[in-house]
Each structure stands twice: as C-alpha cells, then as structure tokens.
Design the sequence.
C-alpha cells in the first residue's frame, strides 16, 4: 500500500463537535484501560498480517516506502502513550528492520512536550502532523491557532524537525515559512492541518458528531470517494493511490471516512487475502474507481436509484444529499451481507488449512 491510516485507540482528551466518530472521546479510569486494551490485543496480529514488502511504485517506476499514519484519538495522553503508542512504534521497528515504512503521527499538539518528540523520533517516526488547526478545536478559534503554531514551531526547531506544507491550503498563515523547501533525506518533518475551508475536509464528513451537529456542508457533488483518503485505487496494492484505514481492533475499510461495514479484520487474516477476496465484488470495484454512484449497477440499482437513497436528515433537521449516505444504504441493503459471507468463507478455508498441517 502507498499508505495505511491506523487508528490505534478511540481514547482522546477532547470531544470535538466536528469529529467523524462518536467513539473518539475522553475515557477515565477503568473505561480508559478497557478502550486501550482493544488496541493492545490486536496490534501484534495486525502487524503480522500486513505485507512483508511495505513499499509501492511511484509514477516514475521507483519503489517508495509505505507510509503508516498512526492516529487516535490522542496518542500522547497518559494511559495511551506508554501503554500502547510507544510499544506499537517499537513493534513496527521489529517487524520491518531492514526496509521500514515511513511513520507519521497525528496529534492535536496541545499536550505535546519536547520529551514526546524525542521519544517518537528515537522510535522511527519521520513526520509529526499537528491536526488541530481549525476553529472547531477548543482554544484554536481565530488568531489563537496561529499563536499556538508559533509555539509548536519553536519546539520543533529545538529538535531539528523541519516544517513542511500539507499542500492545497490557500492561507499563507497555514503554510511553512519556506513551502518550496524540500527536507533532506532522513530529516524529520512536521506539518499543520485541520478542518479548514480551503482543504479537502473543509466540507466535513457526513459522519459522527459532525453529522449529529449539522456541520457537514458536503453535497451530492462532493465525492470524498475519489479524493485522497477515499476509496479510489485502494485495491491496487503496491501502487500509487492505494490506502486503507485500520481501526483499533483490526477492522479495515477502503476509506478514512469508513464504510458502513468493514472489509475484514487484520486481527484474523492477512491484508492480501482480504483485498484479493473482496476485489471480486462489482460494488467494491466501483468504490475502487472512485464511483460510489455505480456501486449497485450489477444488482439492479441504477444511478438514479443510488441518488434517491443518498438523502438523510442531519442533527440540525436539514435534508442533506451526499454520496456517502447512498454508500451507507447500499452496504445496509446488499454489500454488508456480501462482505460478511466472504469473510466467513475465508476464515473457514483458513481453519481447514491450519487443521491440515
């Protein structure tokens, strides 16, 4: 894969109004222990079921290391950092000692300390993404976010971590001081991003608290599926554009917004076996093409049928039309059952093969 987006835990110190999943929230005492344990139980199996070859081929035919994006929740909070986050970084180093993937970490940055930077860099992290630069995160509204950015820049400078720009943003205040500068090979970097109007997530996803609070402005013309972190090209393992999203328990999805049901679980079986199996489904092929409207063509859903099922009422009582909603309906009526049947068949076959050894 070109990229893996791996949520290690639902635990977070924030409960942002625009979050795409209700499970990201504060957990305390035994609840925190339990939610972190979900990731602890699964991560070794997840790593074992990822490919030995963590690389992809770019447009010039050059092999590049896979990018693993580790996220929460918030990975730097007490109860997560030492218990799950650092052990996963160390396990990744053990899993691919000779040709390691690139590692990026997403954090809100508001609890980031110099010792956290040292700990991440020493465990192979190459990029630190500060993902709270928008007006939705408490304490970041208006000019306050830019004062916060200056604080982070000073901290990173002391550690020799170079700022880079995410790309796509129009505001000069959100770009690196020298956006054209390229980091030297092996040089650690950091960047800022958030739910800004001039980036792809500006419309917000029709998911989680963003949906419940009526904050999503995505309409039917907004095709998240065909954008980066959408489903487009996710089947093309080791090729440009391929990415999957992983939940703490190992469930995998073709997009970061996540479909109604997972494709399978890396806690149970290899990524290659899951991808090979689901690629036979016409609806999955449509998602891979970035064409969610075509998901049901093979089962009698016309494009107009899909569009008619792509409307729902959000938390503000607004009637909203969006292709993600149509995808949800198709999963509920057809694809979820198909994926479950394939998963059962794969696990039966795997059990029989193990019994034969």
Sequence:
């Amino acid at each position: 894969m070109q990229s893996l987006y791996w949520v290690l835990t639902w635990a977070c110190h924030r409960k942002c109004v625009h979050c795409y999943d209700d499970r990201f929230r504060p957990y305390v005492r035994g609840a925190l222990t339990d939610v972190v344990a979900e990731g602890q139980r699964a991560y070794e199996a997840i790593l074992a079921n990822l490919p030995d070859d963590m690389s992809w081929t770019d447009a010039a035919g050059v092999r590049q290391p896979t990018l693993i994006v580790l996220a929460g929740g918030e990975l730097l909070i007490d109860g997560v950092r030492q218990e799950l986050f650092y052990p996963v970084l160390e396990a990744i180093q053990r899993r691919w000692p000779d040709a390691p993937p690139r590692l990026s970490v997403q954090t809100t940055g508001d609890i980031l300390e110099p010792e956290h930077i040292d700990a991440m860099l020493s465990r192979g992290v190459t990029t630190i993404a500060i993902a709270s630069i928008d007006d939705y995160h408490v304490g970041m509204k208006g000019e306050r976010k830019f004062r916060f950015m200056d604080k982070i820049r000073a901290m990173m400078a002391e550690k020799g971590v170079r700022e880079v720009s995410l790309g796509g943003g129009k505001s000069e205040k959100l770009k690196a001081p020298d956006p054209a500068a390229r980091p030297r090979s092996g040089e650690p970097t950091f960047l800022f991003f958030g739910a800004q109007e001039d980036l792809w997530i500006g419309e917000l996803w029709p998911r989680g608290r963003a949906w419940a609070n009526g904050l999503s402005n995505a309409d039917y013309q907004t095709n998240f599926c065909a954008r980066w972190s959408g489903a487009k090209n996710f089947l093309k393992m080791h090729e440009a554009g391929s990415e999957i999203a992983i939940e703490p328990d190992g469930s995998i999805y073709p997009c970061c917004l996540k479909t109604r049901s997972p494709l399978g679980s890396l806690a149970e079986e290899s990524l290659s076996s899951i991808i090979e199996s689901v690629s036979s489904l016409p609806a999955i092929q449509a998602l891979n093409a970035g064409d969610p409207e075509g998901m049901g063509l093979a089962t009698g859903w016309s494009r107009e049928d899909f569009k008619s099922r792509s409307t729902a009422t959000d938390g503000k009582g607004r009637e909203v039309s969006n292709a993600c909603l149509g995808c949800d309906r198709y999963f509920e009526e057809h694809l979820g059952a198909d994926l479950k049947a394939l998963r059962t068949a794969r696990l039966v076959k795997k059990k029989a093969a193990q019994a034969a050894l």
User: Anything to note?
Assistant: The longest strand covers residues 102-107.
